[in-house]
Amino acid sequence: MSDETTPTGGTAGAVEQLAENTCWELLRSAGVSRLAVWVEDHPDIFPVNHAVDHGTVVFRTAEGTKLSAALADVPVALEADGYDAGTGLAWSVVVKGRAGRIGRAEELEATADLPLLPWQAGPKGVFVRIVPGLVTGRRFPVADPSVWRTALSDAHRAAPE
Question: Based on CB atoms within 10 Å of each CB, which residue in 61, 81, 105, 116 is the most buried?
Fold first, then answer.
């Protein structure tokens, strides 16, 4: 992806495709994301606390379904999003790549200081690194809720309870 941002479309609600460096900045600002993995015969999604580390994404977890699926021989995706109330803009960043367990002592030592603070208590001693093959992002204005009003929704609101 280039380092330029490019708006698509010509309307006030245009989606802005984000430069890769902007995507990484936004990922650094979001401590929580969703990890998409393939589990047996279906996709699954898990919330993870993540940290950006030298062009990769790192999270920590425990043994279990999430870890097994992340380390399987299939790509993973990680998505984070956010909203800037000051500008009225929402954003979404997706990292697609391969996940691997961080096992070498020097790598573990380097990741131990990352701000990885899982929400759920319990042993989370496994560190996983996602090496991206593709990083994409977009930013867009959040629509005023009134644009979704229809005659049916107005009638429903007006109906006595």
Answer: 61
